[in-house]
Specification:
The complex is a heterodimer. By secondary structure, chain A is an all-alpha fold. Chain A contains eleven helices and two strands, in the order H-H-H-H-E-E-H-H-H-H-H-H-H. Chain A has a two-stranded antiparallel sheet. Chain A starts with a helix and ends in a 14-residue tail after the last helix. Chain B is of the alpha/beta class. A seven-stranded mixed sheet of chain B has the order 10-9-11-12-13-15-16, with helices on both faces. In chain B, helix 2 crosses helix 12. Classes of the chains: A mainly alpha, B alpha/beta.
């Protein structure tokens, strides 16, 4: 039982990271219909920034500043690089985001230098007793933070005027524009939110062993998460991320005992297998919008 | 000018460009009566110390921007620039200076890109002073052989022992892991071994060596493949924690290693980890996994670390003032010695053509590494079995050391490596 709980908490912890990243993907997708492949770079940049700021302004101050700075950076990228592409095919815009990703990563890599950098978080690999099992504190922090961020985001979209405007744009850009909503501001804000979330996710990834230039690869795990949850659903992003984390962790722990014939690294494939299973039953993801196309 | 004429001029220019310095250029007589063909010019190098000397161009294909080994590749490349500058400052080789700055290309650790950039520079260089990575170099290997392009690898796979054009240095991953298992058996009393490694010839070569040693020493052996990426180590950690081997031989990247060691220790694992040199980065000593790393980890190494006192190490440190100590520099510097020796031999033979350089390589029965490797290292004239370098060092983490590691075991050859018949690459 202890082992199961430990594995579950590990899965929820890493799943929280995937959720934060998936939320960013979904927020941008909802407002602009584009999957932004620049998220991995923002995640890396956030973690690197914290590694520089933490010694000066404490870890928590650094995380706050880094999330804001990366949000502004993402907003700047949207305004300068992507705004001229409004109305162009989404495929073209998605490819441009790959270019943005490479540029931001190469610049960020220059700041990583030769040594693995540390974010200076207070948890390290310290464990604590949680419902009778020894689990790492950092996983609990990840789960808690993601829960708070998710609630705050939902409240923002539900109750704030700009949140409402973002939902309106997600429904129908032209109608929203006709109602006096600045669609451009919504695009910019969605990029900023996604940037901030990616930075936070990057810091959490780096709490285990530090920041190296390969950190960005983790962001790709958010892709099965958003497909699983449904591209348009914020709730789906959170559930998808957590599901990917849990499946990965439980398979890692138990598959070797119960299904060794699947090979030693099936845990890495398991999220994709889960995604395929879900898509077979629900082609638009768990919470995705069912598209009706009239011919 | 009409369109047609323009097209003719363009095609003519293309044809000229294609001919210039291309493969198959006829040998000519260069400075001092030395025969030269490709990549050697009468004109001085771009940043020549002595403008009256000709220039030997060497190419570098490395992982310089966004690939996974950038943190090793950049210091390797910088160290080699410093190495060849020192050679030039000392008068060059055979009336020529050596340029390693003009043809430096980024492979992003991608075999296709590696091949592409190699094709871009191969008509302008005599040899490659660096071709980084095993799968990347494998992508150009047939061409290297056909072009007689002597090449210095930045990797330690056992395949290089069978490639005439490849000038490898130090023990390969396979031999290093054999020595690791023998060391752990003799000094730490281990009875069970697990190889946790990346797929591909870096990890597979090391795992093959560890397996051979485990079989020879009668130890139980487990083989666990993992992928790079901090979030992808769950399976490896679970394997270590559940099987509890006495020794884990690691061949991964540094943060992968730190995640595995830190998490396995946090989950109660108390055995030993010994990682090959690419698993190490001094930054790990500040990571949350540092206590576990200090308690459980040792590093195997093909040559001595940055701060060692030897003629070569001292010259390297003097040539690289102000840099953050990193054993990527040490690797780049050490790897350059055999090519220097081959160029000197070829110059003495009055033949600095590609074929002449390869012939000189075949005459090298030892290379002077200025104390960075023991005497006898760098034999390229004998059979793979006789030429194989079989010695390894063991280091442990140490906060006080410049590159974070301190020597615990001098150059040694374990029982398995000593008796090993080197007849094919270990992972095949």
């Amino acid at each position: 039982m202890d082992e199961f709980l430990q594995s579950l908490i590990r899965g929820l912890g890493t799943g929280s990271i995937y959720s934060l990243l998936a939320l960013g993907f979904v927020i941008i997708y909802k407002s602009t219909q584009v999957i932004s492949f620049a998220q991995p770079a923002f995640m890396l940049a956030g973690a690197v920034l914290v590694s520089y700021l933490a010694p000066q302004v404490s870890f928590f101050g650094a995380v706050l500043v880094a999330a804001l700075v990366i949000a502004v950076l993402a907003l700047g990228v949207e305004r300068t690089v992507l705004r001229p592409m409004v109305g162009k095919p989404v495929f073209v815009v998605a490819i441009i985001t790959i270019g943005v990703d490479v540029v931001v990563r190469v610049v960020t890599n220059a700041f990583i230098g030769l040594d693995v950098r540390q974010v200076g978080d207070p948890w390290g690999l310290t464990t604590m007793n949680f419902l009778g099992a020894e689990v790492q504190q950092r996983y609990l922090v990840m789960i808690g933070t993601t829960a708070v961020v998710t609630v705050a985001l939902f409240a923002f979209f539900r109750y704030s005027r700009i949140g409402l405007a973002m939902r309106a744009v997600a429904y129908d850009q032209e109608v929203a524009l006709a109602q006096g909503i600045s669609v451009g501001s919504v695009f910019a804000l969605s990029w900023a939110l996604a940037g901030g979330l990616a930075a936070l996710a990057g810091v959490f990834v780096a709490t285990g062993a530090g920041v190296d230039q390969q950190l960005w690869i983790v962001a790709l795990k958010a892709l099965p998460a958003i497909i699983l949850g449904g591209l348009e659903s914020l709730g789906g992003a959170v559930v998808g991320g957590l599901a990917v984390g849990i499946v990965e962790s439980l398979f890692g722990t138990y598959q070797g005992d119960f299904a060794p014939w699947l090979g030693p690294n099936f845990a890495l494939v398991a999220p994709y297998a889960l995604m395929l299973l879900v898509l077979l039953v629900r082609p638009y993801g768990l919470f995705g919008k069912r598209e009706v196309e009239r011919l | 000018m009409s369109g047609k004429r323009l097209a003719v001029v363009f095609v003519g220019a293309l044809a000229l460009a294609a001919c210039r310095g291309g493969d198959g250029a006829a040998p000519q007589e260069g400075a001092g009566g030395i025969k030269v063909d490709i990549g050697v010019t009468k004109e001085a190098c771009p940043n020549a110390v002595d403008k009256s000397k000709g220039c030997i161009y060497l190419g570098t294909i490395s992982d310089l921007t966004e690939g996974p080994f950038k943190t090793l590749a950049v210091p390797i490349t910088d160290a080699q620039k410093a190495f060849w500058k020192r050679v030039n400052d000392k008068g060059g080789i055979g009336g020529y200076e050596i340029d390693v700055t003009k043809y430096v290309k980024d492979n992003k650790y991608n075999p296709q890109i590696h091949n592409q950039v190699y094709q871009e520079i191969k008509g302008n260089i005599l040899a490659l002073t660096q071709t980084l990575g095993s799968p990347t170099t494998a992508a150009i290997l047939p061409d290297l052989e056909n072009s007689q392009m002597v090449s210095v690898p930045a990797s330690w796979t056992s395949l290089w022992g069978f490639e005439e054009v490849v000038l490898e240095s130090g023990a390969n991953y396979c031999v290093e892991s054999m020595n690791t298992v023998d060391y752990a058996t003799d000094k730490l009393g281990v009875k069970s071994v697990m190889a946790v490694h990346l797929a591909g010839d870096y990890g597979d070569d090391a795992a093959a060596g560890a397996k051979m040693a485990a079989e020879k020493r009668g130890l139980s052996f487990e083989n666990v493949t993992t992928q790079s990426g901090q979030d992808n180590q769950g399976g490896a950690i679970d394997a270590v924690v559940s099987k509890k081997p006495d020794l884990v031989v690691l061949t991964t990247g540094p943060t992968d290693a730190a995640v595995i060691i830190g998490q396995a220790a946090a989950r109660g694992y108390k055995g030993k980890f010994i990682g090959t040199s690419p698993t190490w980065n001094p930054g790990l000593l500040k990571s949350p996994a540092a206590p576990a790393i200090k308690a459980l980890y040792l590093q195997s190494a093909p040559w001595k670390a940055w701060a060692t006192e030897s003629v070569g190490h001292t010259a390297m440190r003097a040539a690289l003032p102000g840099v953050t100590p990193n054993d990527g520099y040490t690797a780049g510097w050490v790897w350059a010695y055999p090519l220097k020796a081959a160029l000197e031999k070829a110059a003495a033979n009055k033949d600095l053509t590609r074929a002449g350089l390869l012939a000189a390589v075949r005459q090298l029965n030892s290379v002077d590494y200025e104390g960075m490797l023991p005497s006898g290292a760098g034999n390229f004239s004998a059979s793979p079995q006789d030429a194989l370098f079989r010695q390894t060092l063991i280091y442990r983490p140490d906060d006080a050391a410049p590159t974070g590691v301190t020597l615990v075991e001098e150059f040694f050859t374990g029982q398995t490596a000593k008796d090993f018949k080197f007849e094919k690459p270990c992972y095949q």
